[in-house]
Amino acid sequence: MKKKEKYLNIKSSSVKVIFVVMLIFVLISIGLTITLYSFYNEYIQERLKDANQIIFGVNTGVLCSMLITLVVVGPAVLFASKKIASPLVEMKKVAIAMSEGDFSIRAKVNYSGEMGQLADTLNKLASELSNTINSLTTEGNLLKQILNSMGDGLLGFDINQKINLKNRTFEEMFGEETSLKELPEDVRQVIFKVSLSAIEKQETEIVTCSYNERSILISGSPIRSEENTIVGTVLLFKDVTEARRLEQTRRDYVANVSHELRSPLTAVKGLIIPLKEGMVKDEWKRKHFYEIIYNEVERLNVLVNDLFELSRLQSRNTPFEMQMVDILAILYDQQDKFKMLAEEKNMQLIVKKGKFPIYANGNIHRIAQALTILIDNALKFAKDSSTITLYAKKEKEKIIVCVCNTGSLIKSEDLPFIFDRFYKVDKAHKEEGAGLGLSIAKEVIMRMNGNIHVKSDMENGTCFCFELEPDSFN
Predict the structure, then answer these.
(1) Is 57 helix (H, G, I), strand (E, B) or coil?
(2) Residue 350 near residue 388, CB atoms below 8 Å
(3) In angstroms, rounded to a whole number, what is the distance separating the alpha carbons of residues 170 and 187?
(4) Which residue would you say has higher pLDDT here, 215 or 108?
(5) Residue 455: beta bridge partners?
(6) Do 412 and 373 meet the contact criterion of CB atoms below 8 Å apart?
(7) Is 196 in contact with 158 (CB distance < 8 Å)?
(8) Lowest-pLDDT range, 102-116, 214-228, 283-297?
């Protein structure tokens, strides 16, 4: 039940004044009458016996008139007090509601005179404040969404180095939701150092730090007020780990290409000079030199073709022409292709037969290209008397094609980089090839919406497997 307002409460200032004045006036009148009567009673009786009755009657009349006035005027005063206090109490309720954040409440405007104007002004103030608060809330939500959608982390400090702004990207980057206390001490020191340095130098400060094996670029800038005084700083955090890795990869790529191209060219140049100068007289030696030159040029030609093939695969976005492919038929073709070479190296190349035909959605020539690279690598690096096994299977709505050999082992530290361009397990580049074959195989499989991976252990040897999408009728 709504609490009824006590307009006649003695706490009301208007009512209090009126009642106090009337009460004092009545009490003074009564007191004066009694006092005068007490002091001058005998004198009046002796001197003015005849007037005694008249004075008593006057006093009695005055007292009665005062009581009558109190009875008659009291209700009128109470009614007037209520009329005056009612709009003030209502506007007080509106003011209290506004102070608590409720700007929807309105005061009645059916009052006359200044009270009506005051109520109307209070309602306009509530409406303006409501519109302003709503506008600020909308802008704040929009700003928050913009900050949270940023790709870089953001952290804001006031002039006392207390956090006043933070976006979701920063929390995801560092895994913090409330404060910086859980961050490593060195990272916290770098953050505060950048913020303080931006304030001191009054310019943008850029520093790179490491966090969880990632490189974080921190850019801190001072924030200025309308009076051009610095009131804080804002720090941007950008994860540059991938950019640095790509830059290092680019440098390694250029260095490896230069190395692989220079090696055959140096060998060819070293053999051509003595032939040009006529220093080689023996016919057999001359033919041997020509054979070496031919092999080096052929090696250079293979390298250039591989580079061109890899670049073409990585630059084009057009998909391969896909169709239903019999995987087992391709495996048997590869077995026939490499059978003689395997026998020359005293190795066995077998195809594990399946119970049912296996069909995949792919490009028959590109699948054969990837298998050629994997089988050729197995023949190069497997030891004598090794067994190379080719097989395919359907597993979890995927077609798995594998090339496994029992004669070689890849170290665990080399496995994550085995498909990188120019990567070689032998860092001295002593083994055959330029290290591009597996990169080409990976690009080929990925262009067919597949994936390729490798496992290598003492129990099963080395096994390269790639996944393809099954044919819709498979």
Answers:
(1) helix
(2) yes
(3) 13
(4) 215
(5) 463
(6) no
(7) no
(8) 102-116
